[in-house]
Amino acid sequence: RLAGRTALVTGSTSGIGEAIARVLASSGATVVVSGRTLPRAQAVVDVITAAGGTAFAVPADLSGDTDEIREFARVATRALGGSLDILVNNAGIYPVGPTAALADADLDAVLATNIRAPHVLVAELAPAMAERGSGAIVNIGSWMSRVGIPFGAAYTASKAAIEQMTRTWAAEFGPSGVNVNTVAPGATATPGNAADAEQVEAMTAATVAGVPVRPVDIAFAVRFLVSDEARFAHGTVLDVDGGIANT
Ligand code: NAD
């Protein structure tokens, strides 16, 4: 159902982003896979290709220089034939711990990766979608954006920020035919939080579902929001968290 569409999924060399890239590709989209290193991106491209999909690897460091991020957006668009239909802002880091224990460099990195990079990518890519009159942007938020948890203030603030940026962008680009929405995952077992397996288990136990969210479950929600079926969804937050943020 996404045949002929092109997609850029940031942070798609691992976990949730990888699942999103694979699901979009299996639905017919041509996908740019991206992460910090080329070999990891190429490995995901190889999996997609072996499954009959089409993908290209374009690495980037999204915590860095704004000009580099803009250049990354242009290179990715060129790899897709010059036109981008779908942007998924998924790359994110989540340093957690007591507020006083967060190093200044980690504070800067989480704000740069989770807020600044999506902003720069939308600034670079959304105007062309708006000019064309169609496009879809999904930002990956978190169930932690709306609850008080005694660790990870910077991370949870970054996810609250992306939800609000979603609403603002929906208002800014929606009238031009661009759908902007958030998918907010619950505790999902991924390489990124493998070290916190106990915490994931404890959070899962607190959900209605009682079993962990899988990366592919997040990907299915993204696929819906970038499809024509969701053309009236503007600025929504779709919680895919087993029922924790709303219960
Ligand atoms: P992960 O650590 O498994 O993967 C993160 C991806 O982002 C990787 O591909 C990595 O290369 C990329 N990335 C990180 N820093 C980058 C940088 N500076 N430049 C370019 N790419 C970079 O993470 P995950 O658990 O799959 O999480 C993906 C997204 O989902 C994040 O935004 C995270 O905040 C969000 N999320 C995750 C959970 C969870 O429980 N796993 C819950 C809620 C929200």
UniProtKB/TrEMBL annotation:
Pfam family, one: adh_short
GO molecular function terms noted in the UniProt entry: oxidoreductase activity
Matching InterPro entries: NAD(P)-bd_dom_sf, Sc_DH/Rdtase_CS, SDR_fam
UniProt-listed PROSITE patterns: ADH_SHORT
SUPFAM superfamilies tied to this protein: NAD(P)-binding Rossmann-fold domains
Keywords carried by this UniProt record: Oxidoreductase
Cited CDD domains: SDR_c (cd05233)
Domain of life: Bacteria
Stated family: Belongs to the short-chain dehydrogenases/reductases (SDR) family.
Protein known as: Short-chain dehydrogenase
